Amino acid sequence: MVIILRPQVNYTILKNILSTIQEAGFTGYQAGKKAIVVHNNDETLQAKLKTLEGVENVVQVKSPYPLTSREFHPENTLIEVGGHVIGGDEPTIMAGPCSIESLENIIEIAEAVKKAGGHVLRGGAFKPRSSPYSFQGHGEEGLKMMALAREKTGLPIISEVMEPEKVALVAEYVDILQIGARNMQNYPLLREVGKSGKPVMLKRGLSATIEEWLMSAEYVLAQDNPNVMLCERGIRTYETATRNTLDLNAVPVVQHLSHLPVIVDPSHGVGKSQYVNAMARAGIAAGATGVIVEIHPDPAKAWSDAAQTIDFDQFNQMVDDVNRIAAAVSPTLSRTTVHA
């Protein structure tokens, strides 16, 4: 069950609620300042809790990730960033380079994203690379370059944060904090981005189950941060024809289980540029609320992820295709009538 607290509950009232739960033989876990989670739906305890000062409501939830589930929050979560609503009927287009290379390069790319009708500029300043000898990103200087690109184009920006200690720094510059696949279960990091109050994109781990993914989202939501979006970016399977396997099953499954917006990342999902557009179309057809892709004016010269990066012409075609498919798919069926 989830106990929804009234605003400005003081320590004495909170202690009384937690003591009542404990006396009944259960444990209450505080989820920020607005809720308490109890892993039980005892009806006698529910009735007693509803009479206590400071309790606004008690909601029965069977899910192991209560705040993330549709049982607790039946309506779709909508996240407003830079005047655009993520999770609405219009598909969200996020695009940019894997790694920020130079100010001139990121501004050129930002202008291309804006011209094509994109909504968010992506770019890596802190890069988790498989090899310690690969380019690791420009760090704060890269974030400064992105901020200048935002100033020039008006596009909000998203970039990855890898360490709890760097959350405050990255949050100074970006509009959306990205948690990469390798950090999906970095719980101290998840707590810290939750505390930042910034919108968070949580990418699915390379071998994570859907339940593990949603449990990770719960860590962010439990810090009073409701602005979380999920990103399906491909999982590791036995198949070697592509870099990963973009799990399109996850899109409708997650929409059934959770109220959070689902974005697909076909660039990492397949790892080969010639398949990116097809999988972007498939993701939107499956009901995803947006796509995030890697683009570059000359992909062969991109400093990282060149093989999966598309050029501006391919990006323009993808945006057109995605918008056409979104218009053809009923928003009522794909995004708002899915209930647990």
Automatic annotation (TrEMBL):
<dbReference type="Pfam" id="PF00793">
    <property type="entry name" value="DAHP_synth_1"/>
</dbReference>
<dbReference type="InterPro" id="IPR006268">
    <property type="entry name" value="DAHP_syn_2"/>
</dbReference>
<keyword id="KW-0808">Transferase</keyword>
<protein>
    <submittedName>
        <fullName>3-deoxy-7-phosphoheptulonate synthase</fullName>
        <ecNumber>2.5.1.54</ecNumber>
    </submittedName>
</protein>
<dbReference type="InterPro" id="IPR006218">
    <property type="entry name" value="DAHP1/KDSA"/>
</dbReference>
<dbReference type="InterPro" id="IPR013785">
    <property type="entry name" value="Aldolase_TIM"/>
</dbReference>
<dbReference type="InterPro" id="IPR052899">
    <property type="entry name" value="Class-I_DAHP_synthase"/>
</dbReference>
<feature type="domain" description="DAHP synthetase I/KDSA">
    <location>
        <begin position="83"/>
        <end position="318"/>
    </location>
</feature>
<dbReference type="GO" id="GO:0003849">
    <property type="term" value="F:3-deoxy-7-phosphoheptulonate synthase activity"/>
</dbReference>
